[in-house]
Q: What sequence folds into this?
């Protein structure tokens, strides 16, 4: 079985944390004997922009081809415009770059798997028609809850990607319901999951936790709150920073990631900013923390929450997307988005031992172990690939 991944984000030397959930799935499929090639186009960047903007410099430095964990990654260039997911949908330009990578590298594939509806899903529809191959589309969150609502053109691009897919997967039930409401297509629900062998339940004693903090250069005598993700407003970063101003000096907040709010969040003395880190280091930071916090305005099914719960690290998260279905009867632990007050209250309740009993941690761990093992979920995915390959329709694309 040969599968072509099409996506707009995937790890690289410049951005080792970008799209790690895609990598997790690709690695798991590879272990099952599936041949995976990844095409992840990069915006074409004039050299002068690389001089004045760090992000564009990263584009310039991106190699056209490299291997990541033994998988071939191709990064052809495509013409991109500022704010294109709002006003100038790029899936046709994206598809041309994908097609160029296929032809120049003689890539062969039986099934296409696109991650994120825009622009990868729309590009996959075009490539699927040209090569007469079926494609499956995985929806992750913002590609359903945010981007389609930018403009009429964005909604049309979203519906084009979803309605032309042979199979559509949503990583949570809430995401599947919203997709059906917007498009009339009901996705099947299948989370990517995590590598449970790496993120296994662990109750560390204080000595072991202090040793990990010492290795990471973190304070040993403070309660550490951890956030991992993009440093953008929609992730509730400003509310989280404001909460730190209201919490006492026994707390420290560690922010892992990059984004437009990077300089803004550095001003508080009780906040430690690491920038991006390799995915291999995530486990240590989770084990070193007392509490993981994700106060997003919207989410699909956040992989990092699953990783935290699998390590029995307490989590405070917003009551959005697929998070409440993950927490189930424990959803009273969740907060409403945009609420600094609730962040402070939950952190203090945790610190005082009011919430997150051992029974709660074990219950959430068992749920994660049962539903979010990437090996089990990848087996389900390979079965779906085989079904698609056997049927292999003519892929007539809807206008």
A:
């Amino acid at each position: 079985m040969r599968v072509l991944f099409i996506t707009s984000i995937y790890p690289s030397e410049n951005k080792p944390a970008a799209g790690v959930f895609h990598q997790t799935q690709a690695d798991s499929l590879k272990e099952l004997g599936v041949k995976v090639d990844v095409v992840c186009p990069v915006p074409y960047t004039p050299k002068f922009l690389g001089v004045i903007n760090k992000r564009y410099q990263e584009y310039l430095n991106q190699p056209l081809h490299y291997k990541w964990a033994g998988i071939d990654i191709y990064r052809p260039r495509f013409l991109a415009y500022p704010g294109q997911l709002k006003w100038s949908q790029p899936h046709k330009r994206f598809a041309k770059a994908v097609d160029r990578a296929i032809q120049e590298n003689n890539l062969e594939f039986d099934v296409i798997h696109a991650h994120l509806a825009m622009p990868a899903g729309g590009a996959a529809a075009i490539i699927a028609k040209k090569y007469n191959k079926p494609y499956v589309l995985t929806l992750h969150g913002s590609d359903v809850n945010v981007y389609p609502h930018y403009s009429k053109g964005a909604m049309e691009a979203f519906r084009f990607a979803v309605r032309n897919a042979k199979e559509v997967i949503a990583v949570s039930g809430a995401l599947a319901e919203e997709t059906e409401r917007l498009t009339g297509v009901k996705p099947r629900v299948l989370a990517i999951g995590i590598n449970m062998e790496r993120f296994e339940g662990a109750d560390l004693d204080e000595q072991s936790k202090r040793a990990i903090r010492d290795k990471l250069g973190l304070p040993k005598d403070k309660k550490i709150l951890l956030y991992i993700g993009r440093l953008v407003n929609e992730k509730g970063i400003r509310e989280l920073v404001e909460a730190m101003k209201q919490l006492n000096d026994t707390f420290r907040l560690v922010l892992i990631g990059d984004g437009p709010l990077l300089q803004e969040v550095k001003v508080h003395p009780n906040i430690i900013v690491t920038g991006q880190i390799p995915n291999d280091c995530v486990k240590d930071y989770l084990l070193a923390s007392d509490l993981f916090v994700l106060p997003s305005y919207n989410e699909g099914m956040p992989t990092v929450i699953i990783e935290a719960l699998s390590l029995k690290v307490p989590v405070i998260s917003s009551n959005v997307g697929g998070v409440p279905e993950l927490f189930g009867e424990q959803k009273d632990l969740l907060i409403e988005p945009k609420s600094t007050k609730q962040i402070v209250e939950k952190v203090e309740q945790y610190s005082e031992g009011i919430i997150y009993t051992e029974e709660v941690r074990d219950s959430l761990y068992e749920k994660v172990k049962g539903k979010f093992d990437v090996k089990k979920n990848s087996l389900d995915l390979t079965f779906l690939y085989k079904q698609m390959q056997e049927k292999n329709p003519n892929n007539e694309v809807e206008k």
The radius of gyration is 21 Å. The mean pLDDT is 90. The first helix runs from residue 20 to 31.
